[in-house]
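To whoever is on call:

I kicked off a structure prediction for a single chain this morning and the downstream step that reads the tokens threw a length-mismatch warning. I double-checked the sequence; it's 362 residues and nothing unusual in it as far as I can see. Pasting both halves so you can look.
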Amino acid sequence: MAAFSSTHSACGILLLPLVVSSLICFQLASCGTIVEFLPGFDGPLPFVLETGYVGVGEGEDVQVFYYFVESENNPNEDPLMLWLTGGPGCSAFSGLALEIGPLIFKREEYNGGLPNLILRPHSWTKVSSIIFVDLPVSTGFTYARTDAAAQRSDWTLVHHAHEFLRKWLIDHPKFLQNELYIGGDSYSGIPIPVIVQEISQENEKGIQPWINLQGYILGNAITTRREKGYSIPFAHGMALISDELYESLRKNCKGEYLNVDPENVLCSRDIDSYSKATSRISFAHILERTCNSGDIKTSLRRSTIQRHHTKKFLNTNLKLPPLTCRTYANFQCGLWANDDNVRSALHIHKEFLLRVVPVVRV
């Protein structure tokens, strides 16, 4: 198993004047660090991984952590994407190691050591460079230096993401001309279209650096906050419930499946029948069985990086999911991210490690 000692700095400093032909410009003097070895991965990483912080907000009191993976194909020409995981409050590490990144946890029974990482053969980084960003504030390794800066809202997330991106591009000028996309999943369906709109509007105003924005990508996105109600038409379309039950639901509930009137006895009856019919189906992947993750759901979601010492965490007698369940990777993710050697390898700020980081429930 590889050590984590070999890293080198990838700092860049580019200070733009405050006024250039009446255009407003961002300033940044910061650096990221190239990570060549990661605990749990055998040998040097066969791709370029950079981690670092970018200060945003008033007085840069929010320190935004990111993982940047350079395209394994042609980083000079391939698209660049900024990726936000949902929640809100999901660490970008889940996107990197559980969804679209070049790493994945090896599925093996926990033996008391650090979970092992292997390569994902179908990573999106085969054809694009991706910045995985821990936002909103207090997500993953992103932290606030003041109580005021720790306040969260969708609008704050939008502004922080936009400011982060422009500052990051100043620090990485080789990517200024690359086509850029904003990507994310789940709750990111709420802020990402607004982030894209803000970037576009600021581009039109002449804000520098200009961003070569091409579009956005959303997966299983929340857009109306009524998505749970769509599960019934989906279940019918996938033949998980009968035509008769679906027609009865449509007739008796009149398309309203979320806030059922308790006096609507027929609709309540059909909802109960639907719940029973789908009770053993995993809606994360309908071809997989449901997995009883026990209390782990409230403590180690795919998105949460908690500030707990590993041994102390394991003494809480959590019921772990079976190895065959995809949620087992959530358990591995938490163990890995809470390891002191991992945090050293990722160059997490000492300031973060000394603060009490809230546990984000999603």
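Update from on-call: the warning came from a stale cache, not from the record. Cleared it. Sanity check on the structure: The longest helix spans residues 154-171.
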